[in-house]
């Protein structure tokens, strides 16, 4: 080409959660059954949508209106329903105009970062969900800015480090939290969120709270939505139905603006987000129409509670098993359906391996050159056992060596077997 055509930050875009899938498919073709622990898709993993939810979707799909455009911000009645529910829960009072729908939160994340000034930075957690980390780094064409979630302190964020980085980097305009967290399953205690809100107020920042798993915070987890503690600080909360119903294929998410009238700069930014959505006309109509029909049903929250109980039980069994490994750090999940296992410093090295056949070895070999230590382990694990997990380093923009697995396997016997095979493989790999 006569000149460069790629956006400078494009090289920062990476999604190892799906990248490793291509390698797993090649391993599968050698005759090794794959245990898919890389993607948080409850449906693909075997969960079934309750029949009553299916019937509501079917009934709504028979309405001619759902085949039309919705208003750009989203269906009026759906946004009004969400606003009423939110106002019952929290200190931040919103209207339907403070809600903007997207085709999934991936769409929302892209819009949030591309509409920021290039020199405006968002600092987020480490480990971090890759869509946030990659989009933030790409928009700024700079490495992802992060504060640590500490595995030695049950994944509590290091708020002293966070404040120091805010002080040192004047380009930081916002703090990102993912609550409940992906990939760790950590739930931010109310006091911790209040301290983050206080930092935002002190340094004149706004907050982004990704709450896609908010209705999957386990009982007694201490979870509080940002709306309940935000006070007068400008903020954006992110929600969706892909993990809740669950209906990931619906691609239906939304953001909620808090206190946008309190700051002129923040208000203009929210208007830019709305205008950028206008250029796409609107988001998908059908799931918006279904949303209040399902969430307002008396069976909905018992349905969620049942799912959360299953995830909590699997988390407890996995943690009990991994506790037997002195080389690893693991904590109970308190929300969502993920578990992160961290290797202690110095446990992994470039000389470790698992015995493989020639074909499997040749498949993973190109991916091992200059690979971080935890990525090297995950590829050997995949080739040897068929278990497909995601390394924390390249998968979640982290400087911890470890991996994320899911708590989604509905076959309890198979789940326990996966944990057992994982433990054996880790022991063999470390000892090699």
Outline the fold blueprint.
Layout: H1 16-28, E1 35-36, H2 42-45, H3 51-61, H4 76-89, E2 99-102, H5 105-114, E3 121-126, H6 130-140, E4 146-150, E5 156-157, H7 159-168, E6 172-178, H8 190-202, E7 206-210, E8 235-240, E9 253-258, H9 264-278, H10 285-295, H11 300-322, E10 328-330, E11 338-343, H12 358-368, H13 373-385, E12 387-388, E13 390-391, H14 392-396, E14 402-406, H15 412-431
Parallel strand pairs: 1-12, 3-4, 3-6, 6-7, 7-8
Antiparallel strand pairs: 2-9, 4-5, 8-9, 10-11, 11-14, 13-14
Helix pairs in contact: 3-10, 4-10, 5-6, 11-15, 12-13, 13-15
Q: How many helical elements?
A: 15
CATH fold group of the largest domain: Aspartate Aminotransferase, domain 2
| SSE pattern, N- to C-terminal | HEHHHEHEHEEHEHEEEHHHEEHHEEHEH
Instruction: Indicate the low-confidence ranges by residue numbers.
Output: none
Share of residues in helices: 40-55%
Can you tell me the CATH architecture of the largest domain? 3-Layer(aba) Sandwich
First-to-last CA distance: 49 Å
State the CATH class of the largest domain.
Alpha Beta
Give the domain tally.
2
Strand content: 5-15%
Q: Main sheet, how many strands, which sense, barrel?
A: 8 strands, mixed
Number of strands: 14
Query: Which structural class best describes the helix and strand composition?
Result: alpha/beta
Q: What spatial form do the alpha-carbon principal axes imply?
A: globular
**CATH superfamily annotation of the largest domain:** Type I PLP-dependent aspartate aminotransferase-like (Major domain)
Radius of gyration: 22 Å
